[in-house]
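User: Small ask, check this?
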Amino acid sequence: MKIVLNAFRCLQYWDALKLCAEYNVPITDDLADKLTPSPNGTMSDSERTSILIELGELCLSQGQYHLACKQFTQAGSRIAAMKALLRSGDTSKIIFFANVSKQKEIYVMAANYLQTLDDWRSNVDYMRTIVQFYTRGRAPESLASFYESCAHVSINICS
């Protein structure tokens, strides 16, 4: 841990990340913040983005999905951030992130995730959110498929 922080202090971000990966140094919120290059520093934007993506990948490999989401978001890679959140299974954060991101692909990813939940059929809020996300994501085929699933559920309940 001390070696990682020393590499960071010398602004050797790549070396610090490599050490974290090699020695399985757990990435905590505090360490992730320290390893995140400042946007106001002397580093180029592309270099900063590469470091953030690498840090996000490292967080993913350690199961730190929320931290990975944060790093990918800072790098501007919202799709990767959403994929990290989907792996976390944190439904409320997935819905929040989709609403904030306002990207078609992310809306569809969130709606698809909500449909994998066991209780979407009994949760009216989930059903509304799925319809809303498919509509915002401009995915009429997926929306039609969802309505078909709803119809099958209704038929099975009535039978």
The chain has a mean pLDDT of 89. The two ends are 62 Å apart (CA to CA). Residues 101-159 form one domain.
